Amino acid sequence: MEISRRLSKSKTALVLEHPFIGNVAMNMPFKLSEDVPTAATNGKQVVFNPNFCDELNDEELKFLIAHECMHPMMEHNFRRQSRDPRKWNQAADYVINKLLSDEGIGKMPDCGLLSDDIYDSGGGTSDGIYKILPDTPEGQGDPLDDCQDGEGSPAELEQQAAEWKVKVAQAAQAAKMMGKMSAGLERLVDEILQPKVNWAEVMNNFLVKKRTSDRTFARANRRFIQQGLYLPSITGEALGEIAFCVDCSGSIGQEELNQYAAEIIKVHEDLHPEKIHVLYFDSEVSHYDMYEQNESPVIKPHGGGGTAFSPCFRYMEEHDINPVACVFLTDLYCNDFGDTPDYPVLWISTTDEDQVPFGEVVKMEV
Hints:
alpha/beta, Rossmann fold, six-stranded mixed beta sheet, three-stranded mixed beta sheet, 13 helices, 15% strand
């Protein structure tokens, strides 16, 4: 079908011209159906009305695809709650259309909602704009009514939102590698990931002597390879291996777990450690993952029982994991700390608890 070919062509164009949006679109299932008047998404797929799309030119089609991908990216499908669905959809559209227009991503179809006055009066957020819109708002043409609620229980919606944070981080990384990530989109990514810890500052202060120019055998010195010699290179300012211990005990809720995921992703994006080790624990280590420097962490909680910190240290010792620092993401509701390890420990606490036998504590607001 011609419209399927045009949609595929528009996806490819977005990847080349606007890789941040394009990478999200490439991993978003598309479907054609006349059951929707224009286009719509529930956060898991985008449904396009072929007759509506057929009336759009190529630039408008690119805008439409980007618009639909932005809804779950900004969690519009997962956090409407009791708000009026039509009014919420309109508020979300004003935000997305302003952002895409400012970025020059395609051309907005005539039916789109766009107003600098409304955007500014609402503080540039869907929540703020929703509050100032009348019950029967007037816009530029008919709204798309394209933002459908996500499917599932509140906990499942929280999980879907957390998974979208990972997609956003991965797409941002791909765009940065291509050198096509604008300042505006970088700000958007920061807002979506919502890191509560200034990791650059914390790690710089905490690991000031761990960013090292020591010689290492991790990478060979290329100048001597041709001579058959495997000599150590200089690591320069590379940050070594970091271990994250994620508290998945019964006292930790989905909101805290989502925030933990955002923090780990932000460390990967900003500091590029050599490796990231992720240990999920409650009263024992229930799961372990390791990510190389070029791999984006995918954070999925495991466990849910009591709490003990000492098994994490034992696990790393038994599996020969020697990080330059170990970071615990926890509420610190536990007294089983174990023995002081050879590496520094940073406790990122979601509570006011700050009594630890070793390491430093940083409070994280959730």
